[in-house]
Design goal:
Blueprint (H helix, E strand, L loop, with lengths): L1 H7 L8 H6 L7 E4 L5 H6 L7 E4 L9 H11 L4 E4 L13 H14 L3 E5 L2 E3 L3 E6 L5 H18 L4 E3 L14 H12 L2 E5 H11 L3 H6 L6 E6 L3 E4 L2 E3 L8 H14 L4 E3 L8 H27 L1
Parallel strand pairs: 1-2, 1-12, 2-3, 3-4, 4-7, 7-8, 8-9, 9-12
Antiparallel strand pairs: 5-6, 10-11
Helix pairs in contact: 6-7, 10-11
Amino acid sequence: MRRRQEAHGSAIGRKTISTRLMQPLRLSGAGLGFRRELIPALKSRVPDAIDFFELAPENWIDLGGAYGRDLRGFTERYPFVCHGLSLSLGGPAPLDEMLLTKTRQFMDAHGIRLYTEHLSYCSDDGHLYDLLPIPFTEEAVKHVAARIRRAQDILERRIAIENASYYTPSPIAEMSELAFIRAVLDEAGCDLHLDVNNVYVNSVNHCYDPLGFIRALPTERIVYLHMAGHYVEAPDLIVDTHGADVIDPVWTLLDETYRIHGVAPTLLERDFNIPPLDELVREVEHIARIQAAHRADEHAVRAS
């Protein structure tokens, strides 16, 4: 329990943005999405393999009653990450600053340090209930980066953006997906939430080398990883569903990601077809074993 208490700490008070952006990320190991369906099992026992949890703040802000009490019971004992679903960083509508303010208050109240969001958009006049790709253009880089900087100002935290899966290339693209991600990171001054499965999905759908893609990402920006399953619609079309087990090629890609960039906190995503907790934990344990092997290798190198 000592490790988990140190990783989380008590609820943090209001601080200046300069202080918040310099704070180290006290998060490590393997994690699991915090879902209401899993709460009864987790209240009975949190498996040792789970070092932290992730939640979508939109689903928990202003939630009281039994669920609110349950959440507090876990955030007081375990580190959490906020992974946003609806900020629509690439969208044309004004940035939802009220959501960001409420998210900051929620994160302060629960002592949560890291907020991540998708490098995509999901709204115009209203929410579209899907994550849509941003055109890979210089204009889009500047648009998205400005919105990320504003989000960081309101959240008083450095955030991480997640590489998104997409299915139809933009006809007005001026650069590759990789170049676009790197340009946004540089322009916005933010970090990268690397979804390993999304790299694999896009590599099949858009015919590129996933390992080369990961190798070209900036190590110093990678603070957080996702692993998930997907659905094979056709040999050349994979749909990112988070509704199945992780497949062997994606596990191999995670192993190579650690070899190239080092070990980072990594979460197992499962959003539907959710099996019992004991079955989910097997994949969390798989993440932990790969992490442990790489840490052992790093220790052996330092020792020599």
